[in-house]
Known about the structure:
Layout: H1 16-19, H2 25-39, E1 45-47, E2 56-58, H3 59-65, E3 73-75, E4 82-84, H4 97-103, H5 109-120, E5 124-125, E6 132-133, E7 141-143, E8 149-151, E9 158-159, E10 162-163, H6 172-175
Antiparallel strand pairs: 1-2, 3-4, 5-6, 7-8, 9-10
Amino acid sequence: MVPKCPHEGCKNELLAESCRKFLPHKLIETMQQRKVEASIPVTEKIYCPYPRCSALMSKTEVLEYSKNVIGAQKQCIKCRGFFCFICKVPWHNGMTCHAYKKLNPNPPAEDLKLKSLATRSLWRQCVKCNHMIELAEGCYHMTCRCGYEFCYQCGAGWKDKKATCSCPLWAEEYLVRGT
């Protein structure tokens, strides 16, 4: 999330430039990166599939950058690596998406490791955008950064600020920080 002014009642965003005098350079970079991330709608976000890059781009940006490239093959705007816009993997040269998926039915090892970590850590995945969410404290009513609201216990959506499931609203161990 983009940082907001800590003064009570103020809703203004903190600008990285105005914080440069008292924050470390690394934190300023993080603030600037978060601003870029927040500016791209969830449905527009696409990541470079190359692990050494993983650049965040918007679909519009990728399509414009790769306008001279035909079909599903697109190019990362940062590392210039070619990837499949449909499969979200490095370019599968000479192979249709259907053939690629048939030859590679299992997710990559990195995805399996993340799923295993998420299971062990009791993380949940937003059903709308697939973003991983961890309940550190508070109730089971989650609001994902994409705006989707759901129950952390069972994943059922919320409507009009009300649960559509019969799960408890909270567990005491999550209500107080550090317990």
